[in-house]
Every structure is written in structure tokens, then in C-alpha cells.
Amino acid sequence: MTVEKEIALRTERINAVLENYLPKEEGYQKRLLEAMNYSVRAGGKRLRPMLMQESFLLFGGTGRVIEPFLAAIEWIHTYSLVHDDLPAMDNDEYRRGKKTTHAVYGEAMGILAGDALLNYAFETASLAFEEAPADPAVGKAFRILACKAGAYGMAGGQAVDVESELDGSLPMTEERLEFIYRLKTCALMEASMEIGAVLAGASAKEQEVMGQIAGKVGMAFQIQDDILDLTSTLEVLGKPIGSDEKNRKATYVALHGMERAKEEVERLSGEAVQLLEGLGKEDGFLKELIRYLIHREK
Amino acid sequence: MTVEKEIALRTERINAVLENYLPKEEGYQKRLLEAMNYSVRAGGKRLRPMLMQESFLLFGGTGRVIEPFLAAIEWIHTYSLVHDDLPAMDNDEYRRGKKTTHAVYGEAMGILAGDALLNYAFETASLAFEEAPADPAVGKAFRILACKAGAYGMAGGQAVDVESELDGSLPMTEERLEFIYRLKTCALMEASMEIGAVLAGASAKEQEVMGQIAGKVGMAFQIQDDILDLTSTLEVLGKPIGSDEKNRKATYVALHGMERAKEEVERLSGEAVQLLEGLGKEDGFLKELIRYLIHREK
After folding, report:
1. Does A116 contact B at CB distance below 8 Å?
2. Cα distance between residue A14 and residue A48, in whole Å
3. What is the pLDDT of residues A252-294, one digit of tens each?
4. Which residues in A lie closer than 8 A to residue B150 (C-beta atoms)?
5. B160-176, pLDDT tens digit by residue?
6. What is the value of pTM for the model shown?
7. Where are the domains of chain A?
8. Which positions in chain B touch A142 (Cβ < 8 Å)?
9. A3-295, which class in CATH?
């Protein structure tokens, strides 16, 4: 089976888990629940839950304790897109060819649906306490999720990114850009791979290594995103190319040039795979997935 | 000591706990952290943490496991105000005589600061896992917090409230208004009192009764709010009176008249106190606090 088919199969399985946890569209707050579900169903490859699931399997995880967290990480990723698309932020009417949440449900409901999805992530994850009420690993997973999503994780990266765009006087340095990428993109991937490991009973050292791998994968993934924005085509990418340049967005390619960007993707990718091999586990699909993510063409 | 002085003393003690958990304003995301702290420090009486603390004491709770939750419930209350004030929502430039968060930091940062505060609530609460890693009560408290704040709690109530204001064709029925109050106002109070009880080791039955008390207190509190909006003065209330009428907001008073509103406050207040007495605990300050909240003049 090709890696694309393997991924499609896993996406399908994860979508089934997600559907299981999505709220029923009923009650006075029906429209809010519809807006939440619309946002989640608008799709995506479910990479973060996939990384989590594969990390869980890598360390021999079994049982359903992982499932609420698979959903939770996707809710958090989704809420961040919903709020990113708002008029006061990137003001996008379309994402992946579909109307964005606020474009369909209005701005107020876009804000509230994002809020409710973020909250629902913790609500869903907290179901794992019922699965394993006295297992300290669940509390630990919870803390990783919360920390990597917040002001010292994804939300912090978004804030610095937004500030850099709004305030032209802030110079985009190498360190600042790395900070944004590390928080905005890498943090949720780190959460995914660390939570998978922790819930499968990995040691603190193993958790740390998984975090390092995810950090490298996330960074390479983001730089590859910058590269594709310049080199791909509308047909392949499914969105207008050159949008970073148009929005005068500082990217790794803009700062360091295409050649160094490509080298950096290779370097990070090699390091991630090396760290993974160093764990001495039967790595199943994870290595392939990482290589694919980093070298993808869309 | 008067009840006002008792409350002021407790507010001060809670503020000290909150300050302990507020983020340091440093790093690239300094402005986000400043906006978060600004929102929290803009103040308020800290009623939710106060209800939580008193419920904890009612059931003989000791130790510091409650503290992260005292902070978390206030972060959630604060984020809801920050997002409520946004231009796409109530569009308020001032709250309690101070500039609102988006008025100071801009709309994008207002959205992100709210997001980050909501997330920070779960981040802060998850510190309790370090205090008591294998205590199932912490997981239970976590789940209460998440459920009461989300689409089936506060956020759900806000969504229905916003929808009712935007869509004039939706008739405001008694049931719909009660639903909004129950979710928007009561849910966080229920969370406060239930979490206090659970962390102190209360039984499931006791937790349920505390939820019922909080539901009645919250409902009476909200109706009293409607009454004060019509009967108080600018000087006493610290904000323009008659604002509900101006905004054509459906309230309990608008729907049922002033007389019935006042009767309802009395009825709910009496029932709450009766339930509290029925628990057969030495109720310390909680009964006084409840009576004060419901009969307050501002």
C-alpha cells in the first residue's frame, strides 16, 4: 500500500472517532453546536491525532484512553483555525475551498464556536478520567495538552505572529520567527506525540525524546509550508500560491532564501528520524508518516 | 464585622491567590500576557472563587488543592467578559469604568487574550494534578469545570443570548429566558460550589445539593441584576441604568414584571438557604454570602 493510502485509511479511522465525540445538534444552542460541527467537518488530514495515535502505538499503548485526546487535539487545532479566519484576524472567507465558520454563521457565532470548541477539547479529554480515574498519566496528558495549546504554546505563537503583522516596526529576526514557528506550529505536534507516549506508559525520558522529534517535525513541516506557498501550483495546493508574499508575511524562505530552507527541511527531517530510530522501538508507520509530512507536495 | 467587610477581606485573600497564578509579563508574547493580566486585574468581586472557597470550607476542605481551581474559575469568567465586550458581540468600550481589553489592546489581541485566558484556566487547574496526582476528585473537579463552562454551560447560554439579540424573529419565551440564565449565569456558579464540595470530599448527593443551591443562587442573582438595572442609580451601580431596556434586551422583569421578579428572588433565596440548612453543616459564612449576593444593591 502507498503511504498516501495508508494515511487516507488512518484519516478515515480518526474521523470515525471524532464523529463519536461531536455534539448532537439539538437544544436551544443548536446553532452553536452546528457551527462547531461544521468547523470540524470542514476537514483536514487529521495529522495531529494521527501523530498521537502512532506515538501511542509505538509505545505499545492499548485500550480507549487515547480516544478522547485524539478528539481533543483536533478540536483545539480547529478552534485555532476558526479564530484565525475571523475578520479581526486574517479575515478569510474560504479555507480549503469551503466557507469559513464566521462566513456561514456570522462573526459573533464564529467567536463563540471557537470558544466552545476550545472548551469542548478539555470537556472531551476529561472523559479519559472516567476511563482511568486514578491513573496519573491521564492528569499528565491533560497538563501537556493545556500547556502546549496556551500562551506558552500555540496561542502565544499566534499572538506574536499577529503582532508582527500588525506592527510593521517590529523587525522579524531569525529568533522571533523561530519562536513563532515553535509555538504556533510545533507546540500542538509536541503535545500530540508526547500525549500518545505518556498514555502508553512511556518513561519521562522517552516523552522528552518524542517532544524533540515532534519539534523537529513541526519546524520542518512549517518550512515546507513556506516552500510550497512559493513553488506549488493552485491545482496541487488547493489554495492560491504566493499568499505569504502577497500578505507580506515573514517566512523562513523570505528570511533565509529557498536553498537554505530546503536544506533545513532535510536536516530537521534527518534528525527527527535519527532520534526516532534511537528509541529502539519497532516504529511501524510513524517513520513513514514523518517522512511523508515533511516532504509532502501539498 | 459587617458582611461587606467580610466580603472585602475575602476578595483581598482571593486576589492574592490569583496574583500567584497570573503569568509573568515577559518573552516574545509579552503583550498577550499583559492583555490577559489586564483583563483579570480590571477587577470584580471574585464571587465565583469566593463561593468555591466557602463550599470547600463547608465540607471541611483543607490544603492547597483548591487554589488552582479558584484561579481557573475566575479566568473563565474573565475570558467570557473579554469576548462579550468585542465589537462583534456587545461592542463595549468600558466595563466597570475601565477600558475593555480590546479597547486597549486592539480587537485581534482581545480575541487572543480571551482564548489564552480560557486555555490558561485549564492550564492552571491542571496544577492540581501535581498537588494530588492520583486523587480521582481532581479529575472530577476538572470535568465539572469543563462541562459547566462550555456549550452545555456558559458558552451555550451566551450563544443563545447572542442569537436572540441578533434574530428578532425568535420569540423570547419563559423557557428560553430561563435556559439562557441557567447556562449563562448559573452554570459557573454551580461549577464553583460543586468543585469546592468535591475537592473537600463531599458525597455525590452533597455535590448534587450544592449544585441545586448554586442554581437557585445564580438565578436569583441574575433576576436581581435585571431589577437593579431598572431601579438603581448610576452612582450606586457604577454603570448606566436602563441599559437592558435601551438594548431591548429580554429580561425577567421585561417578561414578568417587577413585582413577580422581586417575589421570585425571595422564593429562590429562601429555597437556597433551606437546602443549605438541610445539609446539616456548620455553614459559616456561606449563608450570609448567599443572602448578600441575592439582596445586594449593586
Report:
1. yes
2. 10
3. 999 999 999 999 999 999 999 999 999 999 877 999 999 998 8
4. 116, 119-120, 123
5. 999 998 877 778 899 99
6. 0.96
7. 3-295
8. 122, 126, 129, 142
9. mainly alpha
